[in-house]
Specification:
This protein has 452 residues and is an alpha+beta fold. 27% of the residues lie in helices and 24% in strands.
Length: 452
């Protein structure tokens, strides 16, 4: 269907002046006009994460989310097909479904009672004899996102008809995603409830931080000190960043289309229990670990690794991160307000390790997943809020992202085009800012569809 509104038809901004190789202008974080273009051209103009298949496991299950600012219903219809419906009644536009999740074959509009199947088709209106025209006209069916694809259970969608197939768009970032999924029994995971954190700052401040190894030892100092106090003499994950992090085997890799990952796995001892050994202390953990070892004997250490947080941060532009055992999603609310949602994950019984072990690992996993959102993310969002304040200094226009640039041999381009840099460099940010700019300069072929 042809759209009348195309917000980025005219080149309103000088994008190359706003972002160059080493710096970004404060306006990209503060300007409501730029934010509106991002909501059209980036969120939904490129593949955007919208949910996990396990959240709508059965036919007719649904969740409600946002695609940029657009409210949507992510639903598995009666035939098992995953759809992303605009959560908007076609009559006068009211929000159709006001629940966070559930199961429904139909959605009835609360305003005047129009009734839609979960395929988006209008099934009935009250007192239809009051309409002269044919109410079976497809224009009355709910608008939906025309392209919805999953990769390893992660559902992405886009309105851009010219976007590459999802797997090609993801490209080399699929390798760490595969590792992240495959380490679990049967390569399966289910998404649990979330820690929901709101901050008063632009959404990009979170994405700019997603691969940042430069801030850790300063911003998370209280957490690092607490870990050192609770487990004296033991090196936990965050302690990588003490002393000289750039001399360690960990690294960051930019893989294209704004995607990157920071891989701390090369630092780990490759042995059963090697991952678990990095897990910082949480209340009650010692006692539970001792019980676990008694219960599972020789198998305990490798089973405990399934509760341990994977030391890799995998970021898919613009709104998706895998870190530890979490899925983190960035939800823009306004130019200066964002939700950072940390979904927990649990393993699934596939018959290989036994239902008891699955239950016990998930209990421990729940505790480990409480740790960072409560003790670490709060440091990060405090930074985001303070940056947003600092950017109100109108005459001091630039932020710099040039760490690691211009030093011969430091940032390396691999034969496949991916880019590697030490973990404290800002190469990832320079690269995703190029993708940001490319998307804002483009006029994407945005469409919606309606079921016929
Ligand atoms: S707005 Fe939905 S039925 Fe009127
Ligand atoms: Fe951080």
């Amino acid at each position: 269907m042809t759209l009348i509104e195309r917000p980025n038809r005219a080149p309103l901004y000088d994008w190359d002046a706003l972002v160059d190789e080493e710096r970004a202008h404060r306006l990209i974080y503060t300007d409501p006009g730029i934010f509106q273009l991002e909501m059209a051209n980036i969120f939904g103009g490129t593949w955007t994460y919208i949910g996990h298949e396990s959240e709508i496991a059965k036919p007719n299950d649904f969740i409600t989310r946002k695609l940029g600012l657009r409210p949507v219903i992510v639903v598995r219809d009666g035939d098992g097909k995953i759809r992303v419906l605009f959560n908007r009644c076609t009559h006068r536009g009211t929000t159709l479904c006001r629940l966070e999740k559930g199961s429904a074959r139909h959605f009835q509009c609360p305003y005047h009672g129009w009734n839609f199947a979960n395929t988006g088709q209008l099934r009935g209106v009250p007192w239809p004899d009051g309409y002269a025209g044919d109410m079976r006209d497809t224009k009355y069916n709910v608008a939906q996102v025309p392209r919805v694809e999953s990769y390893r259970g992660f559902i992405f969608c886009t309105l851009n008809m010219d976007a590459l197939p999802l797997v090609d768009h993801l490209g080399p970032i699929t390798a760490p995603i595969d590792d992240w999924v495959n380490r679990n029994p049967g390569g399966k995971l289910e998404v649990c409830e979330a820690n929901r954190i709101k901050y008063k700052g632009n959404w990009k401040l979170a994405y700019d931080n997603s691969c940042d190894g430069y801030h850790v030892i300063y911003s998370h100092r209280s957490l690092v000190e607490m870990e050192a106090r609770l487990t004296p003499g033991q090196a936990k994950g965050m302690s990588y960043y003490k002393n000289s992090p750039d001399s360690l085997a960990m690294y960051m890799r930019y893989t294209g289309h704004g995607n990157h990952f920071k891989d701390k796995r090369p630092n780990i001892e490759n042995r059963p229990g090697g991952l678990w050994a990095l897990e910082p202390a949480t209340p009650g953990q010692e006692h539970y670990e001792a019980q676990f070892k008694e219960r599972y004997g020789d198998r305990a250490l490798s089973l405990l690794d399934l509760a341990g947080s994977v030391p890799v941060n995998i970021n898919v532009f613009p709104n998706f991160s895998l870190l530890g055992n979490h899925i983190q999603v960035f939800e823009p609310v306004s130019v200066g307000e964002t939700n950072a949602v940390w979904y927990g994950t649990r393993i699934v019984d596939d018959g290989t390790i036994g239902a008891d072990a699955v239950r016990d690992i998930n209990a421990l996993r729940m505790r480990t997943q409480e740790q960072f959102p409560n003790f670490g993310e709060v440091d990060d969002v405090a930074n985001f809020e303070q940056i947003q304040r600092g950017l109100d200094c109108i005459e001091d226009e630039w932020v710099y992202m040039n760490r690691g640039a211009g030093i011969p041999g430091r940032v390396k381009t691999n034969p496949d085009g991916t880019i590697d840099a030490p973990s404290t460099d800002e190469a990832f940010m320079r690269e995703h800012c190029k993708e940001w700019k490319r998307l804002l300069k483009a006029t994407p072929n945005m469409q919606v569809k309606r079921e016929v």
